[in-house]
Write a structure and sequence with these properties.
199 residues, Rossmann fold, 6-stranded mixed beta sheet, 3-stranded mixed beta sheet, 28% helix, DJ-1/PfpI, DJ-1/PfpI family protein, C56_PfpI-like
């Protein structure tokens, strides 16, 4: 298997698990992942936020880690990447105001390259106008964004994921096992378990 080159769009207060887990897991199985943020360079950091579900009307938010970027946003050329990941948190609501973020997102949609978006990441897809006719899920508060953008918002349990063509989506980080497994299928990644033989 040849590893793919994957672009990850992040910003300050990206959800901690939703950036850390896929960034590390995708590299673990042999892919190259470049995490970029508008107006920031490789080696700089974004602050993350931990969102949790503790019985309130919406998620709670606590400080996370500093996540180090490993590529420079201004140097990104979308057509040099095989797939796109958009984590959630608070970053999507403002990075979607950046025209290049939207152009990058449209490139992956128009070329039908794999896109994995989770939680509030759908706000970027909605702003880019690439959800027309697509069935997808997100954090429930993003449902209206999906609908207004011409997509079909589907409410599923928070630990599940759904796929429509080149797009894999999930409501929250609870879905990581399913969300990442479906994304790996779109990437053509096969993980084989081998039985250990002891002498």
């Amino acid at each position: 298997m040849t590893g793919k080159k994957i672009l990850m769009l992040v910003g300050d207060f990206v959800e901690d698990y939703e950036v850390m887990v896929p960034f590390q897991a995708l590299q673990m199985v042999g892919h190259t992942v470049h995490a970029v943020c508008p107006d920031k360079k490789a080696g700089e950091t974004v602050r993350t936020a931990v969102h949790n579900f503790e019985g309130d009307q919406t998620y709670s938010e606590k400080p996370g880690h500093n996540f180090k970027l490993n590529a420079t946003f201004d140097e990104v050329t979308a057509d040099s990447y095989d797939a796109l990941v958009i984590p959630g948190g608070r970053a999507p609501e403002y990075i979607r105001l950046n025209d290049k973020v939207l152009e990058i997102t449209r490139h992956f949609a128009e070329t039908k390259k794999p896109i994995a978006s989770i939680c509030h990441g759908l706000q970027v897809l909605a702003a880019a106008g690439v959800l027309e006719g697509k069935s997808c899920t997100a954090y429930p508060a993003c449902g209206p964004d999906v609908t207004r953008a011409g997509g079909l918002y589907v409410h599923i349990p928070p630990d599940e994921a759904m796929v429509d063509g080149n797009l894999v989506t999930a409501p929250a980080w609870l879905a990581h096992p399913n969300w990442l497994a479906e994304f790996l299928k779109l990437l053509g990644t096969k993980i084989e378990q081998q039985e250990m033989v002891t002498a």
